Amino acid sequence: MNIYLETYGCTANRSDERTALGLIRQANHTVVSTIADADVLLLLTCTVVDRTEQRMLSRIRYFHDTGKPLIVSGCMAAVQPGLITAIAPQARLLPPARLGTLPDLIANHPTPHPSEPRTRLPKYHMGVIAPLSIAEGCDYACAYCITHHARGPLQSYPIPDIIADVQSALAAGCREIQLTAQDTAAYGRDAGTSLASLLHNLCALPGSFFLRVGMMNPSSLTRQLEPLIDAYHNPKVYKFLHLPLQSGDDEILTRMNRKYTTTAFLHCVEAFRREFPDITLATDIIVGFPGETDQQSANTYDFLEALQPAVVNVTRYSARPQTTAKTLPHRITTQVMKERSRHLAAQSLRLAKQHNQQFLGRHFTILLTEQGKHDTVIGRTQNYKQVLVQGNHKLGTTCDVEIVDASPTSLFGKLI
């Protein structure tokens, strides 16, 4: 049969997509590029905020109206099945934990729980970048987070299985391996190992490739700061740290149930920066958490000003079902949230441009990973800065560039 697939959301969903593609190919089905050519439609959903939820519901409605069999996977299938079936009563639901039953759902057969561990399911890799999950779930319960309910408690995948996944990706021509989890720093806590140990094992594999470590909870990072910094010294590990702050006010962090303080957060960042001065720090901010005062919002602004991150992802608070924050009093009005969001977004752009401008005139060897717009190719420096290079160049190769210009989101390189 012909399968049409759309994927939304985080890198974990992109990893699930590669598994879905592997299962589809193993069952001798074909992936097609248009809905018109499909016999079955497959949608991997995200529901992290209300705006994304509404977009997913719109796509589900559109897919349902085609009259074709529809399979809905991703987080929405796990935590909001009723929303899906209200729009598409005949939709077949596929929560992430049951991804291995996809071939049965395509054939519309009964679907027992898959016996194969997630890491041993087939995967199909394409292009230079391979998103690979190293764990499922999270042991924290942040007050605003619905993903915890969708993905369940922490389940770290065995190191030998992850090694096999990486070897498979490398054999398929991938050069950038994106290690992903709801909290990569928590990896191994349930299995007597650690993220640092995993990185050492992966870096020992032969070949030319890079590892990008995904989002970490600062509380988890604090527990293994020195071993992880040691692992980051390997040249195969991108000097990139995605450490969500969420708020620069300790009282709000406590109400969010984030399990760290701004002081602990700053300690982690300073420790990495002492070893890797050029490290790219990405962080996330939630604007307008219930009860957030003007002063607490200003505290976040001031903290970011002192922190000087390279990337700040600003999101307005969105009440999600099944979360404790949904029941909190003192909700912030939409107008106030918009004003605070605009203020932080402007700051984020300024900080990002300032950070990128420091690389003007410097030389880097970059890995070419993606085709860009307007006859450009996208590459990554060792500290994971995005560099645009003019011309037609082979993806997966490296080249030497001089940085000649900078915007908030990119560096612009000239071949040398």
Q: What are the main properties of this structure?
A:
pyruvate-formate lyase- activating enzyme; OB fold (Dihydrolipoamide Acetyltransferase, E2P); five-stranded mixed β-barrel; alpha/beta; 3 domains; single chain; five-stranded parallel β-sheet
Task: Walk me through what this model shows.
The structure is a single chain. The chain is 36% helix and 22% strand. It is an alpha/beta fold and 416 residues long. The chain has a five-stranded parallel β-sheet, sandwiched between helices. The chain has a five-stranded mixed beta barrel with strand order 14-15-16-18-17. α8 runs parallel beside α10. The longest helix has 24 residues.
For this structure, what is the CATH class of the largest domain? Alpha Beta
The CATH homologous superfamily of the largest domain corresponds to: tm_1862 like domain
Percent range for helical residues? 25-40%
Tell how many strands the DSSP assignment holds.
18
Query: What's the pLDDT, averaged over the residues?
Result: 96
What percent of residues are in strands?
15-25%
Shape label: globular
| Radius of gyration based on Cα positions | 22 Å
In the predicted model, the low-confidence regions spanning at least 5 consecutive residues are none
- What is the CATH third-level topology name of the largest domain? pyruvate-formate lyase- activating enzyme
Distance between the termini: 49 Å
Provide the domain count. 3
